[in-house]
Amino acid sequence: MSSDITATAAWQKLRDHHAALADRHLREFFAADPERGRELTVSVADLRIDYSKHRVTRETLDLLVELAEAAGVTARRDEMFAGAHINTSEDRAVGHVALRLPAGESMTIDGADAGAEVHEVLRRMGEFTDSVRSGEWRGATGARITTVVNIGIGGSDLGPVMVHQALRHYADAGIDARFVSNIDPADLTAKLAGLDPAATLFVISSKTFSTLETLTNATAARRWIVAALGEDAVAKHFVAVSTNAERVAAFGIDTANMFGFWDWVGGRYSVDSAIGLSVMAVVGKERFAEFLAGMHAVDRHFATAPLHGNAPVLLALLGVWYSNFFGAQSRAVLPYSNDLARFPAYLQQLTMESNGKSVRADGSPVTTSTGEIFWGEPGTNGQHAFYQLLHQGTRLIPADFLGFARPTDDLPTRDGTGSMHDILMSNLFAQTKVLAFGKTAEEIAAEGTAPELVPHKVMPGNRPTTTILAPQLTPSVVGQLIALYEHQVFVEGAIWGIDSFDQWGVELGKQQALALEPLLTSPEEPASQGDSSTDALIHWYRDNR
Ligand code: F6P
């Protein structure tokens, strides 16, 4: 049996501590501990993380660290860095930290030098993307490649999409990237609109090279190229990223134009592998190296910093604190950066596919809730949509606010004297302040508010937030942010005792879709699916398609 974390003394102490502290307000915490705003912060690489606006005292933090110790987080972390098969249900190592090792550093995974293998692939990726960026690699007609279309889904899409948008400013070779993922043909159709086949390169990204959406879209893209340029053009317009050379070859892509990775890289942990090829084509291998270096800096911190000052550990412990002791259901991620618009969606796969599990690694049922629900939108847009509920709703929703000292773009304010970016950041600071401290009925009444309106205007506060700041949204900082959340997910999974690296729960739906598809169009009356709802839905679709 995996040990049950809820049966430990550390858990029990936290439960008692929670009972004593749950009704206390952040106003009291700040009044009693005036230095906490400066001291309850942790820095890692370029990130400054303020966790003082959390419903914790210094004692809470000690107890949470005790919990991490009771869960054996350090040992588990060390096993990951040592290349052990900690993905037990798939009997695989979890080696994404090897993807960002500096050249010359090694990590042995399954008897091989993963660091050396990673750098060999990076070298090939660099050579290839250099040739695309310089115009040496040309399409079948001799035209330069101006658009790279990545076809992939899940981890083979969300990371590249997010990083590409985040690094918009670093696109310096006249190459744009588009991303196609959905089996809904609207996706491919919309993304191909306006593209010149002669100047388009497809990157087919799939770890397994068996994913229905990706192979179907890739086949449609192939038809699009062949219709415009002929069969012989395929070699110049298609490359693949995969762990499965046989399937790549069977699809008709020369494995000389395939960039590999390994089964020890989970899909949702793969943006820093060859899956990042489209990003590298747009920003260049040097910027991609900075991105990897940013991740590595956080890896070193995670591997070596004491638990009390270890940023991903602290943030994971706070996640556990709210999920398991306050009963919070979700966490909002609110980037005050339009270029990070896809960061919450990226985190949804990272966190929810990793930790959305009901059994522990040995198959025994968990005894507490797992898997925070991540969601969010960039500020300030979210302020005009769902923040009402954050401020005055009945639910407790801890939120991560992300912001930058320097903008990627800036424009003057209305009167021309200020900066729009300063307004953006003042909103971030205002929101976390109001969420924490609110405004009391007395304060509102003292402003002369009509008594019947006072209850509507009370801002309860005591809503916890983390503020993550960095100087600028650079490639390194994007890498740092990703690694920060990857390791949070790891620590939460270690505390819950689950395997954060498998995803069995996505399989049955895929199988059923394959089985149902012929029934939607077959001339015969479809066989009953065993439930009246599914049968009725299929009939409705057949009648109306
Ligand atoms: O269905 C879930 C999943 O297996 C993800 O874990 C993965 O990122 C995605 O599908 C895509 O898989 P692949 O890269 O093998 O096409």
UniProtKB/TrEMBL annotation:
Coiled coil: none annotated. Gene3D superfamilies: 1.10.1390.10, Glucose-6-phosphate isomerase like protein, domain 1 (3.40.50.10490). Its EC number is 5.3.1.9. The active site is at E353, H384, K510. InterPro entries: G6P_Isomerase, G6P_Isomerase_C, Phosphoglucose_isomerase_CS, SIS_dom_sf, SIS_PGI_1, SIS_PGI_2. Pfam families: PGI. HAMAP family: G6P_isomerase (MF_00473). This is Glucose-6-phosphate isomerase.
